[in-house]
UniProtKB/TrEMBL annotation:
This is Speckle-type POZ protein-like B. Residues 21-80 form the BTB domain. InterPro entries: BTB/POZ_dom, SKP1/BTB/POZ_sf. It comes from Caerostris extrusa. The gene is spoplb_25. The lineage of its organism: Eukaryota, Metazoa, Ecdysozoa, Arthropoda, Chelicerata. Coiled coil: none annotated. CDD domains: BTB_POZ_ZBTB_KLHL-like. Gene3D superfamilies: 1.25.40.420, Potassium Channel Kv1.1, Chain A (3.30.710.10).
Length: 183
């Protein structure tokens, strides 16, 4: 008989062995067997869907069409194990959006931290668009400071030129303070 060491280890076992699962999450191509108690405890959106609006109560199935398989797998693993795998910034963006959509705020914060750590000349423009889209003040502030510090290099990037051409509000938020300091 295996003796567990911690609650986290027990939840990892639950994640790895969906025998007692009572809900199925479906993407366009895959099915994930999960436990409603875990979903409800970690996400107010799933709590609402499972508690009130589940379309297929007999099959206990929820369609999750707005998240790809890998992102949903990472999100489910986080809900059970409270860990985010070592992922690149693009996958962190996808997971961030899923965490926002399903109101898993601690996961959203972890993804935001991953994006801050991954911020570089080649992705700063994408990350700042993300920060503005999801009104993430910490990510906004960090990325604005990064772009300001590296403005000479970033202003030559195609991504920056596209932001300027699109007349994104975020460009003004970055450029106006720069202009004011050089006047």
């Amino acid at each position: 008989m295996k003796h567990s060491i911690s609650l986290l280890e027990d939840f990892k076992t639950l994640y790895e062995n969906p025998t007692l699962s009572d809900v199925e999450l479906r993407t366009k191509t895959e099915k994930f067997h999960v436990h409603s108690a875990v979903l409800c405890a970690r996400s107010t959106v799933f709590n609402s869907e499972i508690g009130n609006d589940m379309k297929d109560k007999l099959n206990r199935c929820l369609e999750v069409c707005d998240v790809d398989d890998d992102t949903l797998r990472r999100m489910i693993k986080y809900m059970y194990c409270d860990v985010v795998e070592d992922i690149g910034w693009k996958d962190a963006c996808l997971l961030y959006v899923a965490a926002h959509t399903y109101a898993i705020y601690s996961l959203k914060q972890k993804c935001s931290m991953i994006l801050r750590e991954a911020c570089c000349l080649s992705n700063a423009c994408e990350i700042i668009k993300h920060a503005y889209s999801y009104e993430d003040e910490y990510l906004k502030t960090f990325t604005k400071e990064y772009i300001t510090a590296h403005y000479r290099e970033i202003k030559e990037k195609n991504e920056w030129k596209l932001l300027v051409a699109a007349k994104e509000k975020l460009v003004l938020d970055i450029v106006v303070p720069l202009l004011n300091t050089h006047i």
